[in-house]
Amino acid sequence: MQEAKCIHIKSKKDPTSRCDRNSTKGDFCSVHHRCKKKTLWQKPLAVLTRTQRFAGKKVLSFLRRVTALPLLRRHGLAYFNPTLASNETDIYTLDPVTSIPATYRFSYTDGQRTWIFDSRFLMGLMQYEQQVTNPFTQEEIPAPVLTRLQTLSEFLQKHSLPLLYVSQTLTSEQRWNQKVLDVFLRIRIHGYGVNVAWFEGMTVETHRQFYCHLYRLWIIELQLTEQDKERIVPGHKRHFLLHPNRISYECHTLKWWMKYTLGLMHTLLTASPEKGNQGCGALYILTAFARTLPEVAQVYPWL
Predict the structure, then answer these.
(1) Per-residue pLDDT tens for 206-231?
(2) 36 and 94 in a common domain
(3) Residue 140: beta bridge partners?
């Protein structure tokens, strides 16, 4: 049978290290039994003065005021109090709205009532729906609200948080799906209803055609000056380096084409900080889609 050890600590600087002698005098060894103070030492709690407590409360109050406004702008008015929303349950899980994680709370007001959702639910709808509607009222969600949803998605991506419902840590496939969703969400905030299935269903040949149409628009048809190109895509000379005649005999996999065309689309949508220039990029992308895919041409016959 193993003998019990002395419960006395070695020093105040290292309170986790115990005496390695056996306890022969109750809970203590023969050495520490003679100590005047036999109880275990505990680090004393800091005692704050009234002035210090008052100063701490002022700092906390200031931090709440500073951080509250950006949170409300990004997540909506019902961020701190989900019960303000007209819907009492989350449309996806049917749990009370208070169960929605604060990180994913997204609310908006349609003029009379406030609605709150899990942002992952809305982003899932935007993957395959051309028009995102409020499931409670069946009314289309306004474009400014979708713009705010895009801001939230950028915040989540910046902090490596999933945009959609996932059961575990993000896999490489899930990270790829988030990149695709981010690009199509950026197109949507400019007022163009898009479907992620258009991109997911493309073959190597349709990717080539899409790039050729986008290349001709950028280089030839639109007759853009160097100043126009630089305004829409700063550093534009680094892009559209593949000539259509060159890609006709080059052999690339579908995975390569998906990465290349998605990167080009992302550049057209994000290179310029001005929303007007980003809208031009979205229109160029949509025009190339309409010229490549018949289902897109049916939706946008005017392109």
Answers:
(1) 999 999 999 999 988 888 888 988 89
(2) no
(3) 133
